[in-house]
Design a protein that fits this description.
With 350 residues, the protein is an alpha/beta fold. The protein has two domains: 223 residues, Spore Coat Polysaccharide Biosynthesis Protein SpsA, Chain A; 118 residues, no CATH class. 53% of the residues lie in helices and 12% in strands. The protein has a seven-stranded mixed sheet with strand order 3-2-1-4-7-5-8, sandwiched between helices. The site of manganese (II) ion (MN) has 5 residues, from loops.
């Protein structure tokens, strides 16, 4: 660690009723332990939250206000705060007392052995107070969906947490997408090598004021998860590769080529096609190996699925007298799942 200073980042939008009390509580916990600063990032709240912070900061050099002209969203507020932080230990938390400040020392201590410590509602020992049934479903559902679509975030039990600490010099901030709510999700996705630990905590009821997480934010998150999903990209490439495969086979059969040869040539053409698109798109950030190595390994890895396609086609055409092109298509379905698993674990592993 280059320096031991702690920077607490608190984004606010209409938290006038909470911010003063929270700053107090956080300071009480930090003042005996650490060299620290508290950065409040306010988006010109209509309730003038910033005036309260500004007043406190006049008498207290530990408190700093970052006032932005308009509401640009939670993620972007946090990133602005992190960029302005002078400490290397960053703690991000909400202003509404839902994130208990008592956990902060635990998060900070964990950074001795980890790069990012995440306060988790879903780790054993953690829980959620007073979420409505609806909000519970949304939260659980979004977490599950994120984990399926974006396996990189499986390193934590709570990828949607808004309460976490990390070492500034261990995280690359430039690559982060600032849209939406889910900054932790974005950090984990773009920084696959971080050492992660979960710290259980109880997510409390909101103190005063209202949640700003609405339908718009949920929708943005879904779009974000889908755009970032390798599985979806991989499937899109696979679908295009399927068209290439069947198109090539169709042309060759039309030229009168024997279906065994047509099938084999179509399979290899689509393998190369898929490789190029997965390399340039699906896995563009995972190039730990040389191009030659990636091409060869990909061919080797999809070998089993290519062979599967070929033999399923053979079998269906010979035994069931199915039209070869249909046999090829059914074979492709069988080859697909094998293909994804091997690609992810053996070709684009880093
Ligand atoms: N500057 C700024 N700009 N702050 C914002 C904005 C914004 O556009 N939107 C929200 N905030 C601030 C709020 O004032 C609060 O301090 C914090 O960000 C979280 O907003 P809430 O409205 O309280 O969110 P929530 O309680 O529904 O959701 C929280 O908990 C979830 C579960 O851990 C957030 O932390 C989520 O990120 C988290 O998933
Ligand atoms: Mn809240």
């Amino acid at each position: 660690m280059s320096n031991g200073k702690v920077s607490i980042i608190i984004p606010t939008y209409n938290e006038a009723e909470n911010i003063g009390g929270l700053i107090n509580k956080v300071e009480n916990i930090l003042k005996n332990y650490y060299d620290y600063e508290i950065l409040v990032v306010d988006d010109n709240s209509p309730d003038k939250t910033y005036e309260i912070v500004d007043r406190i900061s006049k008498n207290n050099p530990h408190i700093k206000l970052i006032l932005r002209k308009e509401k640009k969203g939670l993620s972007s507020a946090i990133i602005d705060g992190v960029k302005r932080a002078s400490g290397n230990i960053i703690v991000v938390m909400d202003a509404d007392f839902q994130h208990p400040p008592e956990i902060i020392p635990k998060l900070i201590e964990s950074l001795k052995n980890y790069d990012i410590a995440i306060a988790s509602r879903y780790k054993k020992g953690g829980k959620i107070e007073g979420f409505s049934f609806y909000r519970k479903i949304v939260s659980k559902g979004a977490t599950l969906l994120a984990k399926i679509l974006v396996p990189e975030v499986n390193r934590t039990s709570d990828p949607m947490s808004g309460f976490f600490a990390f070492k500034k010099d261990a995280v690359n901030l430039n690559k982060l997408n600032t849209i939406g709510y889910k900054i932790l999700f974005e950090i984990l996705y773009k920084n696959p090598n971080l050492r992660v630990i979960d710290i259980p905590y109880t997510f409390k009821n909101r103190n005063k004021g209202k949640s700003k997480l609405g339908m718009k934010e949920i929708f943005e998150f879904l779009i974000h998860a889908i755009i970032n999903s390798r599985i979806i990209k991989f499937a899109v490439v696979g679908a295009m590769g399927t068209i290439v495969n069947l198109g090539v086979m169709y042309l060759l059969l039309n030229k009168g080529m024997f279906y065994d040869y047509a099938s084999a040539i179509a399979i290899e053409t689509s393998i190369l096609f898929n490789f190029i698109f997965n390399d340039k798109w699906t896995f563009k950030d995972r190039k730990g190996r040389s191009l030659i190595s990636r091409v060869l390994r990909y061919n080797l890895m999809v070998g089993p699925s290519g062979v599967t396609i070929f033999f399923v086609m053979e079998l269906l055409t010979k035994l069931l007298k199915i039209y070869p092109l249909i046999g090829q298509f059914i074979g492709i379905i069988f080859g697909f799942i094998v293909n994804f698993i091997l690609s992810y674990t053996k070709v684009w592993n880093i």
